[in-house]
Every structure is written in structure tokens, then in C-alpha cells.
Amino acid sequence: MNIITSISNQRELFQISGISLDEKQKFYVWRLNFRSPSFQIAQIDKVMGIRKSKKKRKIAQDISNRMRINRLRHVTRSHFEQFLNTFLLQVDYSYYPLFSLIKRHLGEEYILDIFKTLDNQIFKNEGHFLKVVGEQAVSHILEREANQKKSNEFIRELNLSYTLENSIPYHNGKVEIHKSSDSIKKEIDSNIMQFIPTNRNQAVDIDNEFGYHFHHCIARGGKYIRTKILLTFNPKGSIHPTGGEQLFWEEHGPYLKIQIPGKSKREKIYHECNKVRVTKGQSVFRNPSEKKAQHFFPL
């Protein structure tokens, strides 16, 4: 079973990403990058470097066949070749924290049901995919387990699945793009908040500040872990003396506390976040905290 989590086309570089579940319930993430508008299915084994792995070979062939037949005709009328920066990686469900928690609370059979329901579907991006998964999990709980309280960690991930728009990978981590709003908060309050265990509200990351912002995540042990670093721009504008719009950071939520990245890594993260600012506009961002916010980049 295959789910395409995103299709993009920038400057003649096509990128398709997705996840797959094989007949033995092994979980894979994969990405195909390519330039030329002509394609030969046989190349997928060579480029992915999986000729010696029958399991991965079968997954790769299934992916390529399904995409070729069902999913890529709206991108171009012809096929594709010359794959670049392509990978197929077997991972644990914890690669997506939400999946790991769904498995713990709702069981692995429910994850199989998700794959069956979403098999062969295309999503705008990874955030859209996780949002749909979170909404389905909430609907399932409301219908069948409304009287069973869930852990704070699970509530947090369901909450964040409502605000998540997309994620931006970089070197050894990713930055999640979130949008909080009054309408989203009301939806969360009416659906998710009723599952919070009594007297433990303080442990749950319910955000009362509205606007776009970023959550910083690191890759560790084959999965992404959200850190306490929240990033945002000043919606009213804040130009650094050296030039460039100032990106702020502050500690936020009951997540992993890490040392702030060095200047080189901060600059890479800044450029990715700044692309979002240019696209979305300055005024839509969440206000930096007056007491906690510090300069992230430029320094």
C-alpha cells in the first residue's frame, strides 16, 4: 500500500515523496527526484541501489508501477527518467510521532485501516497528510472510545496535527510550519480537549497565541523529535542592524530541551523559514514573546 504525501515541481525538478506499507507490515518512507520528462521503470532499481534487496525491490517496483499508471499523468503526459537524490528507507512508526502514538493507543490494526483508506491517494504535502490522519484518529476516538482518556503526549500530537501545514527538511532535522487560529482552537476545544486527563492540563501544549510559527525538530534514532525551540518573525517587522528580517526563537512546550544550534546551522534554518515568510507575508506570523524571545538569526 502506497500513499503519496507530496508532489512538487520547481524549476523543472520534480519531486515525489510518500510512505508505503508492505505485506509484512514493514513501514517505508521514500522520495523520487527527477528532471527529464522521459522515464524508464527499469532505472528505479539501479538508482535506488536496491538490486540485492528483494523486499525493497518489490516495494520500489510497486511504487513505480502505481505512480506510472495512476498518479503522474497530471504532472506530465510522458514518463520520467534521470532520478536524482532518490531514497527508499525502512523506518519504524516512530518516524512520525503521531503514528507511534496511534499504534500505542489505538493499535496497529488501526494504522492498517488508515493505509487501506488512504491507499493511492495524493496529498498537498506531508503536513496535509498528517492533518488528515489526525482528524481520522479524532473521529475514531469520538465514535468508539469517547469515554477513554488518552495520554498528554497523544493529545499534544493530535492538537499539532490540526495546526501543522508542512515541514521543511534540512541536514539532520526539519522545521514544522504551523498555523494557529481562533477557528482551529475552537475545533480543538470541541473535539480533542475532552480527552485530556483530569488535573493535567498544564502538561499539554495548547497554544493561545495565533499566527504562523515554526517548531524545530531533530533527527535521532531513525525518528524526528520535536524540540523546545519555537521560531517566528515579528508580524510588525523587525529588521536586524546587519540587514534582513529578524527571526526570533523562544522555549516552548514540554518538548526536548537542546542547545541552540550554531551559527552555520541557524543560517540554513533561517533561509528556509524566510522563504515561508516571503510566501505567506510578514503580518500573518505569531508575535514573539516579549519576555522570552531571543534573536535566532541574523545574530
Shape: globular
Q: How many helices does DSSP assign?
A: 8
Helix percent reads: 25-40%
Strand order of the largest sheet: 5-6-7-8-9-10
Average pLDDT taken over every residue: 78
Major sheet characteristics: 6 strands, antiparallel
User: Helices and strands: which structural class?
Assistant: alpha+beta
Q: Determine the strand fraction and express it as a percent band.
A: 25-35%
Terminal residue distance:
46 Å
Number of strands: 10
Return Rg in Å.
20 Å
Order of helical and strand elements: EEEHHEHHHHEEHEEEHE
Low-confidence stretches: 36-51, 66-84
Descriptive overview:
With 299 residues, the chain is of the alpha+beta class. The chain contains 8 helices and 10 strands. The strands form 2 sheets. It has a 6-stranded antiparallel β-sheet with strand order 5-6-7-8-9-10. Strand 5 and strand 6 form a beta hairpin.
Fill in the keyword field for this structure.
alpha+beta; six-stranded antiparallel beta sheet; four-stranded antiparallel beta sheet; 8 helices
SSE layout and pairing:
Layout: E1 2-10, E2 13-21, E3 27-36, H1 43-48, H2 54-71, E4 81-91, H3 97-106, H4 108-118, H5 126-144, H6 152-163, E5 164-170, E6 173-180, H7 182-191, E7 211-220, E8 223-233, E9 247-251, H8 263-280, E10 294-297
Antiparallel strand pairs: 1-2, 2-3, 3-4, 5-6, 6-7, 7-8, 8-9, 9-10
